[in-house]
Each structure stands twice: as C-alpha cells, then as structure tokens.
Amino acid sequence: MNTGIESWNVDLMGIGPMYPFVGSEVWLAIVGVLSWLIWHFIQAKVEAKEVAAEQAEYAKSGALNKALDREQA
Amino acid sequence: MENQLEALTIIFTEVYYWITVVLMFLIHVGFCMYEVGASRKKHMLHTLMKNTMLIPLVTVTFYFFGWWIYWAFQNGPGITGGLISAPWATPWSELMGTHMGGAPAHAGLSGDDTMAWARINGVFWAAFLLFSWTAASIVSGAVIERIRSGAFWILAILIGSFCWILDAAWGWSENGWMVQKLGYHDAYASGVIHAVAGGFALGVLIHLGARIGKFAADGTPRIIRPHNPWLVTVGLFMIYTGFWGFYVACNIPILDIGEAAGMDGSFFSTTNIYLTPTSTSAITFNFLMSLSGGLMVGYLISKGDPFWTYSLGLAGVIGASAGNDLYHPIQAMLIGGGAAVVAYKMHHWVERRFRIDDAVGAVAVHGYAGFYGVVVAGFVLWGYPSSMHADYAAITPWGQLQGAVIMFFVLGFVPGYVAAGILKRMGRLRVPAEVELAGLDIGDNDVMERDIAGVVAAEREAAKQYR
C-alpha cells in the first residue's frame, strides 16, 4: 500500500505534487464545497430555532425587564 | 533549485510573505478586541463569534473561488479581453497543495508553472486572504449588536471572497483593466480594500437599521458607550501593528525590473503590486508620517476623544495609502491629516442626516477616507506612469475618480445593498427586537446566571462545615 511518495532517494528536482492520493483533486474540491454549503444549511436551521425560542421566552411578561435590569446592574 | 542564489531569492520571498501573514493576523485580533470592547456586555460573545467565524468561512471560499477570480478576471472579463487561464489557482490544481516544483502530474500545467508557483502559491494566496479577512472585518464592526450571525457570514463571504478580490483583479494587479485603461494607482489599497469595504458596509447598514435607542425621536444621535474603552484602544493599537504586515504584503520584495525598464542589465528592486519600483524604506517613512498626520488632526478635531483619535490615525494611513509608494513623507502627513477631517466630518453628517448607525465609524474611517485617498493620489501623482508598460494609461485625477467610484459604489455599496436587501426580505438579516433588547448573548447569560446561582449555593453548603 502506498498513497504517494515511495522514497526520498530520488532526483528531488523531479518531484511535483507530494500530498497523498494525487489525482483525487477534483473529488476533494467537490467534497470541500459541499462541506461548506452544508455547514451554512445546518447553521441557518440552528440559528433560526434558537432565535425563535429566545423571542418566545422574552415575549413573556417581565422576562425582558429582568434582562434589561441585569444589563444595568 | 540547484543554484544557491536562486534558492535564496525564492525562499526569502516565500518566508517574507509568510511573515506578513503572521503580522496581518494581528489585524484580526485587533478587530475582535475592538468590536468586543465597543459592544455592550449583553452582546459581547455574539460580537466575538460573529467576527471569529468569518475566518474559516472566508478562508475556505477564498480557496474555492477567490484566488481564481483574482487571476482569471483581470480583463473584466469583456473589457480588455476574456477570462484568463489560471491553472495554478483553481481548487483542484495540484499547485494548491504541497508541491516541490517538479514536472506537473496533470495536463494543463507546464513545467514553468510548477517552477514559478510551487513555493510561492500558498504564501501569496494567504497574504491576499488576510486582506479578505480585513475587508469582511471592516463590515463586521459597523453592524454589531443587531445582525444575525448567519446573515453576516454570507455578507462576509460576498465582500471577502468576491467583491474585493474582483476589484483587486481589476485595479490591483499588473495587467488589470483599470490599470490599463484608467491608469488606476492604489498601491496600499485605499480603494481596493478600504473604500470597497466601507461602501459595502454602508449598503448593508441602510437595510439593517439603527440599534434600538441610538436616535432620539427628533433624529439626534445618542452615544452608545463601549463597555470597555481600554479594549477598544488596545484593539486599534493591534490593528496599527498588523497594518505593517499589510503594507509589506502589498510589495514584491525582490524583482529584476531592468528588462521591463528597457535597460541592458539587471536592476533588482522592491516593487509595488504593479511591479513599479518603490522601497520598504519609502513606505516606512510614509506609513508613520501619514499615521502621525491622522493622529494629530484627529486629536484636534475630536477634542482629544480617544476612540476618534485612534480611529482617525488609521484614517490617516488609509487616506495616504493609494500613493504611499511614491509620496514624500510630509505629503503623506498632510494627506493623512486631510483624511482625518474627511472621515470625522462625513461620519457625523451622514449619521445625523440619514440616521445611519455605524457602530464603530467603519464607513467613515475606511470608506470615506479610502475614497478620498484614491482621488487625492490622482492629483498628487498626476502624470506618473501607472505601470512598466508604456502603453498603459498614466495616473490622472479623472482616472482615479472613476476608480474610487468603482470601488466604493459599484463593487462596494451596490452588492452590499442588494445582498442585505435580499436577506431582509427573507427575514434573515436582523434579530427580533426582543432578542436585541435582552442581548444577543441571552442564551449564554441565562446559563451563566443559573450556573453562578448553583455554584454559590453549593459553596454555601460546603462552607457550613467550617462554621
């Protein structure tokens, strides 16, 4: 099993890419872009849920005044 | 690399850019300190995380498409030519990874490409990336205490990995169409980073609206005091420090420009991004003198207000940056002082007239001072060649004015205004009023309050045995 470089005892001037799995770059780019987009999707869902819960909590009588008092303290 | 001199030049250049990246990291530390200090206690953690998380998001998107845009879009495309092939800058390029510079493994790259880019691509990419963080961070400060994090991060990617790097392709590269046609000159990014980010922030602020309580019923603005003024000023000091890295990152440290100048022999020099000569000494003079001009005028005009004095020092540097590769130091000082006046006066006029709540003065310090800096360079450097290419336009006031408008309005204000408008229509731009009033950290604060109560109760219980 070898994922890339097999030996350093070679003509070093001839070495190009050194990372494992040379040839997989397009797939890596696709996985990278999908990971980024999925992150936004998850974050947006979580944030919307949290904000809605906080909004509901602080819409209750007295909760907001308590929070403002805490800020002034 | 077989030749020791060649190896020294290449590895020196590689390490040079690496050091600039480390120094520029301090800009981001400074922005975080500054924003957290400027926000109220109930919003601190949200403010911190909003700015922190732009780091990974702008980084990965700059890897995916930002770097390629810089190299591919220098003709517009469609103004001086089509898309330019840049096989070293695509996210699937072997040169966007660990590489020794030997023969390419993939079609589309030549041996010359790998030799030229293997050791420089990562550090050059990172130097540009740190500018991207700065552009997004400028917007971050203006919108604190009411924007949703998710909305901000989309805007950060738009300014950090698209708008600014497109303007860099056009006006901050050797062969950008603005350099060719307008003679655009902006050596240390008055317009390319600061005006574009300031304009973008202004477009966002119009849709975002002011913080609750910022304006009285008659429109008079109120001061919302930073919860920690010392943190604000240390943050600005940190930005000054990182700015040194920003300045040297704008240069090519060592380049033979003899042939481009038509000389028979070599002439090695530091150059700016347009590959025209300057020196590190010159920009050191001018950085410090323009900072001094901004600070001196800032102190007087703000009557010694620490927040504005520090900020206007920064405005001084930003205002002189377009021409700081060539100015005389006293010119830089005077231009920096002028920038402080423009930023301070414009901020207060816009705030009162349009009720724009720019929480940290980012639009003024970066946007207006940057715009001014680009225009002033057109007058002071009138007739200078913009490039080593004799057929490119020379620097003129009208070329610089057009450039400033493109930076501030076309690539800054318009995208910011449109993107924020879309997010607003989707109900995703601003937090609900209840959440803003309670504080964006309310979840964390509630947990903290509950835990403090729990810990104190446990401590009282434990203390009983010692009574």
Oligomer: heterodimer
**Nearest-angstrom radius of gyration of chain A?**
26 Å
Through-space gap between termini of chain A: 65 Å
| Intertermini distance of chain B | 77 Å
**Which stretches of chain B are low in confidence, meaning pLDDT under 50 for 5 or more residues running?**
none
Largest sheet features of chain B: 3 strands, antiparallel
Order of helices and strands of chain B: HHHHHHHHHEEEHHHHHHH
In helices, the fraction of residues of chain A equals 55-70%
Give helix % range of chain B.
55-70%
Work out the helix count of chain B: 16
The helix/strand class of chain B is mainly alpha
Estimated share of beta-strand residues of chain B = under 5%
Strand order of the largest sheet of chain B: 1-2-3
Categorize the overall geometry of chain A: rod-shaped
Low-pLDDT runs of 5+ residues of chain A are none
Helices and strands, with pairings:
The complex is a heterodimer of chains A (73) and B (467).
Chain A: H1 25-58, H2 63-72
Chain B: H1 4-38, H2 44-52, H3 54-72, H4 111-117, H5 121-142, H6 149-171, H7 177-182, H8 190-208, H9 229-249, E1 252-256, E2 268-271, E3 277-278, H10 280-301, H11 306-320, H12 329-354, H13 362-380, H14 397-425, H15 433-438, H16 442-463
Antiparallel strand pairs in B: 1-2, 2-3
Helix pairs in contact in B: 1-2, 1-5, 1-9, 3-5, 3-6, 5-6, 5-8, 6-8, 6-14, 8-13, 8-14, 9-11, 10-11, 10-12, 11-12, 11-13, 12-13, 13-14
Structural features, described:
The complex is a heterodimer of chains A (73) and B (467). Chain A is mostly helical and 73 residues long. Helix content of chain A is 60%, strand content 0%. Chain A is built from two helices and no strands. The longest helix of chain B is centred in the first third of the chain and has 35 residues, at 4-38. In chain B, α6 packs antiparallel against α8 and α13 runs antiparallel to α14 (397-425). Chain B has helices at 4-38, 44-52, 54-72, 111-117, 121-142, 149-171, 177-182, 190-208, 229-249, 280-301, 306-320, 329-354, 362-380, 397-425, 433-438, 442-463, and strands spanning 252-256, 268-271, 277-278. Chain B contains 16 helices and three strands. By secondary structure, chain B is mainly α. A three-stranded antiparallel beta sheet of chain B has the order 1-2-3. Chain B starts with a helix and ends with a helix. At the A-B interface, α1 and α2 of A face α3, α6, α15 and α16 of B.
